[in-house]
Write a structure and sequence with these properties.
The complex is a heterodimer of chains A (101) and B (152). By secondary structure, chain A is α/β, with parallel strands linked by helices. Chain A has four helices and five strands. A four-stranded parallel sheet of chain A has the order 4-3-2-5, covered by helices on one side. In chain B, a hairpin with a 2-residue loop joins strand 2 and strand 3. Chain B has five helices and five strands, in the order H-E-E-E-H-E-H-H-E-H. The chains are: A alpha/beta (101), B alpha+beta (152).
Chain lengths: 101, 152
């Protein structure tokens, strides 16, 4: 058996209860290896997912499902640097994914 | 940290929203199941409601008090991770915490090793048993305050 994380989909269920992702441009801060990203990205129009740890981003890029390529972009970046280089009012939704600490 | 929440306001559209997910204060539980039976449960002694998490809670409160955001909804959920052995579970968490450069408290590490050793012993004697790790998290939807955004 391999590790299974949240097979009951408790996290995406809680996420969908609070947010409608349909047609949204989403910024995910602290995406890690993309574990949560895959759960909602098919509903969004575009996802930009960032994480300060290069290893996690490499893993996320490698594991991107084919059907989500072109819709999800992963960036190895600290939030402060990403924010400084970004245009204002770009995203419909931002997610702090276990990263506000 | 409140600074990060201010930065996010600039990046989201005026009618956009922020969703925050972070762990609650209570320690995660380690459980062993065999079939439908619960054989063991213990809180993770390695869990630390540390300064970072305390700051996260305070930052959200402060952002709301300062009128940057208003809370539109919140809930709690349980994130459960399953593994077939203690080794597999510990290896998984070791990879996750590989970037954590905080020094570990020796006494806590010893207690954590004891709990995992106890867990392993139970699993060795229970064919087909599964170990699960239960973390509770809070999810909050925040709306940027339109007047604050206009002032920027």
């Amino acid at each position: 058996m391999t590790i299974r994380v949240d097979p009951g989909n408790n996290e995406p269920r809680a996420l969908f209860d609070l947010g409608d992702f349909n047609g949204q441009r989403v910024l995910e801060i602290g995406c890690g290896d993309g574990r949560l990203t895959w759960r909602y990205a098919d509903k969004a129009v575009h996802v930009t997912a960032i994480d300060p740890f290069e290893g996690s981003i490499t893993q996320a890029k490698e594991n991107t499902p084919n059907e989500l390529k072109g819709r999800v972009e992963f960036h190895h970046a600290a939030f402060e640097d990403f924010a400084a280089a970004s245009e204002p009012s770009t995203f419909d939704m931002a997610i702090l994914s276990w990263s506000l600490c | 940290m409140v600074h990060a929440l201010e930065e996010i306001i600039h990046l989201i559209k005026p009618d956009g929203c922020l969703i925050d997910i972070h762990p609650v204060r209570e320690a995660p539980l380690i459980k062993v199941h065999q079939g439908g039976d619960l054989l063991f449960t213990e809180s993770d002694p390695g869990y630390d409601y540390d300064e970072g998490l305390q700051h996260a809670d305070k930052a959200l409160e402060e952002a709301v008090l300062r009128g940057l955001y208003r809370i539109e909804g919140k809930a709690e959920f349980e994130l459960v991770t399953y593994a077939s052995s203690v080794y597999e579970m510990r290896d998984y968490w070791a990879k996750y915490s590989a970037f954590d450069d905080e020094p570990k408290d020796e006494a806590i590490t010893t207690r954590q090793n004891d709990v995992y050793a106890q867990t392993d012993k139970i699993m060795q004697n229970a064919s087909g048993a599964e170990i699960t790790y239960h973390e509770r998290a809070r999810i909050t939807r925040l709306k940027p305050n339109a007047s604050y955004k206009k002032e920027q």
